[in-house]
Amino acid sequence: MKPAVFLDRDGVINVDHGYVSKTDEFEFIDGVFDACRAFKEQGYLVVVITNQSGIARGMYTEEDFQELTQWMDWNFEDHGVLLDGVYYCPHHAEKGIGQYKVDCDCRKPKPGMLLEAQHDLNIDLARSVFVGDKADDMRAAHAAGISKAVLVKTGKAIADDGVSLANVVLDSIADVPVWLAANK
Ligand SMILES: [Mg+2]
Ligand SMILES: [Zn+2]
Fold first, then answer.
1. CATH code of the domain containing 118
2. Is the separation of the CB atoms in 154 and 29 below 8 Å?
3. Separation between Cα atoms, residue 177 and residue 175, nearest integer Å
4. Quick one: which residues bind substrate (predicted)?
5. Which phi and psi (to 5°) does residue 66 adopt?
6. Domain range spanning residue 126?
7. 8 given a catalytic annotation
């Protein structure tokens, strides 16, 4: 079993401009590719875990999301990083429309996407890491039994509940490899 570095998307990989659904809105955060290459060299899988309630709200479709994800994937590949998985939740219990109005098990803070990835990729969750920008990311990590929950400052304004749930607060994903090397 390998450990994984789980990454939230908006605010961690790309600047959170709010409901990002197109390539021209997708702005990679400085250092993200170098950081992901370092995770791979450190023996981690790299898996994206993202709530996409914009789908539930009818702001963009699952096809739009898949297209953007493919483009994101190619960008990572161009920089020498093969992502091991991308998991997304298209639901919202209150704001969802039609089939997407579901009180699901996947939307963070629930751990459903993490448990699915664990099952698909045989991940050692106890040795894994979650990098997120919100309290709900930290909650999902803890609910899945992940030992290291890292809060980064590149996304939503850092809130007290996020800080209190995080194992460490770092400026950005670029700082995670060094922290991990020192905190095995
Ligand atoms: Mg986020
Ligand atoms: Zn869901």
1. 3.40.50.1000
2. yes
3. 6
4. 8-10, 16-19, 50-53, 107-108, 134
5. -60, -40
6. 9-19+28-182
7. yes
Alpha-carbon distance 7 to 22, whole Å? 19
For 12-40, the pLDDT digits (tens) are 999 999 999 999 999 999 999 999 999 99
Q: What is the C-alpha separation between 50 and 48, in angstroms, rounded?
A: 6
Q: Say which of 8, 84, 136, 137 is annotated catalytic.
A: 8
Separation between Cα atoms, residue 73 and residue 67, nearest integer Å: 10
Residue 154 lies in a domain: yes
The tally of domains found in the chain comes to 1
pTM for this structure?
A: 0.97
Q: Is residue 4 part of a domain?
A: no
**161: annotated active-site residue:** no
The secondary structure element, H or E, covering residue 54 is: helix 53-56
Nearest listed ligand to the Cα of residue 88: 2
> Is the preceding peptide bond at 90 cis, omega within 30 degrees of 0?
no
137, 117 contact by CB (below 8 A): no
CB 46 within 8 A of CB 100: no
Does residue 131 lie within any of the structural domains?
A: yes
Q: Give the pLDDT mean for 135-162.
A: 96
Distance 183 CA to ligand 2 centre (A): 32
Torsions phi, psi for 43 (to 5 deg): 95, 15
pLDDT at residue 3, as a whole number:
98
The answer to whether residue 73 is domain-embedded is yes
